[in-house]
Design brief:
Radius of gyration: 17 Å
Oligomer: single chain
Strand order of the largest sheet: 1-2-3-7-6
Helix content: 25-40%
Order of helices and strands: HEEEEEHEEEHHE
Strand content: 25-35%
Structural class: alpha+beta
Number of strands: 9
Number of helices: 4
Low-confidence stretches: 1-28
Largest sheet: 5 strands, antiparallel
Length: about 170
């Protein structure tokens, strides 16, 4: 429920000075993303939690993440990849095309990182909502995606999952 998610965010917040906001992506490949408030930086942030739903469960009493029996090796593997992802993004913060990662930490049996919060939506949702888009609507997101890939490839990184759902379109003025 939404109440349980807000309680969970408040529990997480007690460890990192992030005051809860809103749960805004129901699921991802490896986790859940929340909208939160960082009281030290005094900014809204996206809080990403490693929560591979088929491999873990969450305790109702203390919200700790528990790895399912038989999934321990898998969880450790993706935990390493999740940390690596956050660290890699954080190391690229000098590039305006790359989102800022602020903090990486472990708590409640899993891993979290906070990153820059951007207003907008992914291109997949935009296409579903709007139907076909004109070149004028697509030019900026495509150009920015190409610039981001240029930066990643320049650092020896390959994205491996380029799709409309993974291309973020900021709101005008965002």
């Amino acid at each position: 429920t939404i109440f349980a998610l807000l309680v969970l965010i408040l529990v997480i917040a007690s460890f990192v000075n992030v005051v809860a906001g809103t749960f805004f992506t129901p699921e991802g490949g490896f986790g859940i993303t929340y909208l939160a408030w960082d009281s030290q930086k005094r900014i809204r942030v996206a809080l990403k939690e490693l929560f591979p739903g088929n491999s873990v469960t969450r305790s109702q009493s203390d919200h700790t993440v528990h790895v399912n029996h038989g999934s321990e090796a898998y969880f450790q593997h993706i935990k390493g990849r999740f940390k690596e992802e956050a660290q890699t993004i954080a190391n690229l913060r000098a590039h305006p095309e790359i989102i800022m990662v602020y903090d990486l930490f472990e708590s409640l049996g899993t891993v979290y990182y906070t990153m820059e919060y951007l207003e907008g939506e992914d291109l997949g949702r935009l296409l579903k909502r709007s139907g076909r888009l004109s070149w004028q609507q697509l030019e900026k997101p495509i150009w920015e995606t190409l610039q981001t890939l240029r930066v990643l490839h320049g650092h020896g990184l390959i994205h491996r999952d380029i799709s409309p759902d993974n291309i973020f379109v900021q709101r005008q003025g965002g």
